[in-house]
Design brief:
elongated; mainly alpha; 10 helices; two-stranded antiparallel ribbon
């Protein structure tokens, strides 16, 4: 018989197994598992696009803004993979839209870098800050728009330009 960890159950979207594992070990709700990088069960669900598992974990008060060893949050992981419904859920549940990882990237920058226009659109609709500048070596000092222009992601460039034009002037 295979023994699932809570992280594997979350990544697979196995809500029944999550219920079983959390009933036996409720302290594992925000437990960290380290492989190539550390992650919580909610991060596993977010990165895999497992909405039911994410709902279940959030209902049990999983930390929506927990950060892994690289500073990435569940929202960052959802945007890297283009899981737009997951990104919307996390935002609805209070995820910090402009939270930075260790390289100074926001969820918007991850959606841009990974050419995920649907995530970019949701983040812009939720008022993601387009003026944040990356501190990562490759893109140091660049905004999401400048990254999109560099990568030649024209659809995203258009979305970001429109959002910038529609934004009110700074106070």
């Amino acid at each position: 018989m295979q023994r699932f960890t809570i992280h594997e159950a979350a990544g697979a979207g196995d809500v029944a197994k999550l219920k079983e594992l959390l009933a036996a070990n409720p302290e594992e709700l925000d437990s960290i598992r380290s492989l190539a990088f550390s992650f919580t069960p909610l991060m596993a669900a977010a990165g895999s696009g497992q909405l039911d598992a994410a709902h279940f974990l959030i209902e049990r008060k999983a930390a929506v803004d927990a950060q892994n060893s690289a500073g990435k949050t569940p929202l960052h992981l959802a945007c890297i993979r283009g899981h737009v419904d997951m990104a919307a859920l996390l935002l609805d549940k209070g995820a910090a839209i402009n939270k930075l990882d260790d390289d100074g990237h926001t969820a918007l920058m991850f959606a841009v870098r990974n050419n995920k226009p649907s995530c970019v659109k949701v983040l812009l609709e939720r008022k993601a800050d387009t003026s944040v500048k990356s501190s990562e070596l490759r893109f140091c000092g660049t905004t999401a728009l400048e990254i999109a222009e560099f990568e030649k992601f024209q659809e995203i460039v258009s979305l970001l330009q429109f959002a910038s034009a529609a934004a009110p002037p700074p106070a």
